[in-house]
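Q: I have two molecules that I believe assemble together. Could you output structure tokens for the complex as a whole instead of separate predictions?
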Amino acid sequence: MSPVSEDVRDGRLLRGLRSRRTIVRHAVDTASLEGLDGLSFGRLATDLDVGKSSIQTLFATKEKLQLAVIEAAREAFEEAVVRPALAEPRGAERLRALVERWLAYAEQPLFPGGCFWAANLPEFDSRPGPVRDMLAGQQRAWRERIAAELRHSHGAGTTAGLDADLTAFQIDAVLTAANTAMRLGDDAAAAKVRRVLDSLLAPASGGG
Amino acid sequence: MSPVSEDVRDGRLLRGLRSRRTIVRHAVDTASLEGLDGLSFGRLATDLDVGKSSIQTLFATKEKLQLAVIEAAREAFEEAVVRPALAEPRGAERLRALVERWLAYAEQPLFPGGCFWAANLPEFDSRPGPVRDMLAGQQRAWRERIAAELRHSHGAGTTAGLDADLTAFQIDAVLTAANTAMRLGDDAAAAKVRRVLDSLLAPASGGG
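A: Yes, here they are, computed for all two components at once.
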């Protein structure tokens, strides 16, 4: 083949990647508002003014589209919440940075419906399959990240006696509840999270 | 009118009430699994093998059906979780009874999809309207019930220094997270809740 035809093919490939990204990005927003079940090839085609058959060609099945959307949400979350916090020293400081970034992510928000997992896990938690597995795996990874920072701050002696996994479960639970509260118009939701975090990071005094 | 025709009318009314209850009860189960959005007159008619038009006559609009379902879920929750706990003395004991009843309600479960509010609030929290208002109001009432028992136990001197509203927010958040964890097959979810409750009810020791 001539270099020219390769250029043409590359151009098509690149446009294909770009349009795939555009579709997935729009689908993430839709899923954050109306759930992953709200996604359909037909609706995306109408929203984005492209042919339904080209979307179908790109993703093959609704489940594959949902999995692509979940992965894209994870990447956006990593970019907005996790990566900036990695600049902080490990332990309590990084944990506080993660929580502050998370609050900004839920408040601003990155996705129009707020936290992507809070919106979608309840919809799929009773429905076994790859979509549920991927959502649950990402939630687990997030909790493990919190627990790792707690263990680090524990090692530094600031949070003696803390069960890192249980505390991570609690912090994640409070973040998720705050996300719902924000959607319902509770202006004090972020302040509640900060107070809970303070109480959990305060030096333990005695039993438990 | 003759007494006979009154009997006939009463019979119809009674059958109407019974079928309304049957439909709503089935709709609660559907909504706990697939969300209030998953409800439709057509689907209920197929599931229950009745005419779509009779369901439509009973509820008029999908929104009215959703509101009837939310109210029925609240009644079932009161019956299963709240009423039995009222036998316990006010304060920490009643709070523990509420939490134990709640864990049984999420584990057994009363609704096939687990906690009705955990399944439906995330779906509607970004969508203003009567459905969201009713779901949010019921969540608020549940948290206020928890806070009231905390204040009572506070008054008894067992949980000095506790902010009842913040602690109620935390307890509700952990219950909701445990509900999701149970749906995902986490056998330790109930134990986590009990440990968090113990730590929150433990006598405060100093600052915060």
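A: One point stands out. Chain B has one domain: 3-201.
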